[in-house]
Write a structure and sequence with these properties.
908 residues; alpha+beta; Agglutinin, subunit A; Transferase(Phosphotransferase), domain 1; 8-stranded mixed sheet; serine/threonine-protein kinase; Prot_kinase_dom; ATP-binding
Length: 908
Amino acid sequence: MDVPYLPVFAFLFLILSSLCQCNNQLTQAKPLSPGDMLISEGGVFALGFFSPAKSSKNLYIGVWYHNIPKRTVVWVANRDNPITTPSSARLAITKNLELLLSDSKGHTLWTTKNNVTIGGTGAFAVLLDSGNFVLRLQNNTEIWKSFDHPTDTILPKMLFLLSSGGQVATRLVAWKGPDDPSTGDISSSIDPSSNLQVFIWNGTSPYYRTAIINDLSVSGSMYQSNVTYVLYQSIVNTGDKLYYSYTASDGAPYTRVLIDYTGKMRLLIWNNMTSFWTVVSEPPSGCDLYASCGPFGYCDRTGVAPTCQCLDGFEPVDSLNFSRGCQRKEALKCGQENHFLTLPGMKIPDKFVHIRNRSFDECEAECRRNCSCLAYAYAYLSNASTMGDTSRCLVWTGVLIDMGKATTATENLYLRLVGSPVKNRSNLAKILLPIIACLLLVATTALLWIYKYRGKRKHKEIQKRRMLEYLRSTDEDGDKIIEFPFISFKDIVAATDNFSESNMIGKGGFGKVYKGVLQGAKEVAIKRLGKGSGQGTEEFRNEMVLIAKLQHRNLVKLLGCCIHEDEKLLVYEYLSNKSLDYFLFDSERKPMLQWPTRHKIIQGIARGILYLHQDSRLTIIHRDLKASNILLDNEMIPKISDFGMARIFCSDQHQANTNRVVGTYGYMSPEYAMEGAFSVKSDTYSFGVLLLEVVSGLKISSPHLIMDFPNLIVYLEEQKSLSTRPIFYSLELNRLLSPCCVLHDHIPLAKQGLMGMAYFPVFIFLFMVCLCQSDDRLTLAKPLMPGDVLISDGGVFALGFFSLKNSTSSSYVGIWYNNIPERTYGWIANRDNPITTNVPGKLVFTNSSDLVLLDSTGRTIWTTANNITAGSGETAAVLLNSGNLVVQSQGKIPEQHEYHNFRGALDV
């Protein structure tokens, strides 16, 4: 920038500075006109002309906070004489050294009337940062200040003159309305009859009365909003004058005490965050209003809400209208024996007589010897309001009015009552003792009941919490125990129409089963365990965990559970054909079970049991296999249910013992029923009994009805001893065994009667294997499902779904040796892409003759990608005795394969 321009900018800067400079003084040479403003040196307060409402044409001279957005006026000069012609109004200092406000016509609207007699060369007025507008002589002598003439607001450091020479000195007068600063009806001043209390007046009638002023209730009292600032209130006694004042610590926000037109005396603090005034306190409220509880009544503020109460020994005049006050239960009479009752924490009544220079005993004696004295109060004062007297004895000879009970600024009131304290206590004891005895009896009974009830409830809560903690915990492999939803009891009640009998589809020793419809129109079966059910918490937890972790097409699917107080409920998939015994043992429905259907049911049950015993990563012993626990879906596919009695075996465990034998007699193996020993053979025995029931159509215990034998097993034993075949054997059993080439070598033994006790489980186990083993090929019409196994022609290798013990949440399709005890894998299809859904998928052929592994959501996990063209003929996957899985088309020579797994060998 060129140097010649510098003087120009300096000149402009000086002009702008002079325009923006704020002046806090009013001089005789420069009066204040509309539009002009005085601003205190620190910018806290401003003085000028203002209009309280936008619609109003009246102007006033006032002081307000300068640097907050909401104009808050704290002092008004001409509150009862507004300026109506503002064009030539002005505030000036006269030759008589007075402040004078005049309008355009020269009429005086307001003046200070100083009556200054001391001479001087002139005067000036200054607006201080305290909000005080002060008129001073040139030598700084103060001749008038606005703090001596407050309107409706007391500011910090202001000395509010309560009394002078024992007379009321200053009144704080509220505005007439929110936009009308003229003198209102509400005002506040010290009690004109004493210097001991302050009133809020509505006109000339008392509206609210403070507690007695003393060094305990006011002087030195403190309001602390937070750790950053504190407000102190105090009474200042200068001899013949009594002042009220409060101060704020450094850094405190703006504060003010305001009496408003509604009758509230508010302590307000400015909140910079919200840009609003925060109300710290605003008495009065409720029954705090003067005499609102009537004679001998008091406002009790110790409860949740203020309420009117009667003094001890008094009762309401009108219980529906407490403003009428209270009356004595027994009238006082001069010459009668009486005593003084101590009432602590009281706001003492109005209209007292102050007796000076008395000790406590002298104060009591003064009241006792005066028959008209109804009560007295005493306080020892160290300073302030007593004008030199350090004691204060107050007595009441008339009606006790405007009392209260609170926790602060209170003292003891001594009330005269009829009778002696000892006699009254004796009479009271006669009344109270029977009442207390009855109450103690009731309380003891109630406590015992509560203790018992809470004990039961606590026990239930502990059981429920332990169960939920267990269900949300992880097993030894680091997996969550189960992951399925908890259904609310409210939803279950709605689904079953409040467990309507019309929705009940079954019941047993465990409880009842209901059909229900959950949200989304999903049909479910809800098993509600009865309170007297044999299935307890352990069995309930067993069933939840096992069914949730075991996923197989021949095991019932658990959808969720509910634990609510005493209720334990399990929610299953709904199977429309109910249970096997519903068809098998009913003469009308039995014909629906044609042999192909029975064969499919037996085969499905066998697949489920083998999955529990061999193919799942857990070895599960069901212990309660029977026809009623086999459920049938709409396609008559069987699903094993009711795992409440099931037990888990470790990998190296083969047998266990129990002192609690559970299950159904007739289906139990002898060693389990008599000795409590159970193993996989126990379920195999139960399956054999179930097989006999399906083949014969008879219950295990029903032959005595037609053949005089206690059960089917004894009947078979008898047939063995007679070297004859069972009646039903020739009709059905050959047809059942005919598909099982593996058992052809055992059929002669069976025909010779080896289905007796000793060989029964072994025979049935081999029969189960025969039923469950698939052939050695997979076709388009027959996909490989979880639980299915392809076995090579010579029984050397097997292919199917499996999970590794260190990865229980993942499943694979692989090939392993079939006839050695320790499963050894030779090939895995999806080794880098395990199935991670809870329900394993399926291995299927596509229309393009690709072999595809899908998870339960239909996502492709693995595929052969053969790219066989249309017209190649029917395609099949064959598991060879070499362990090779070969995909071939019909009509091709053995060497011409579309795919074989030896191309993708793993580590063998």
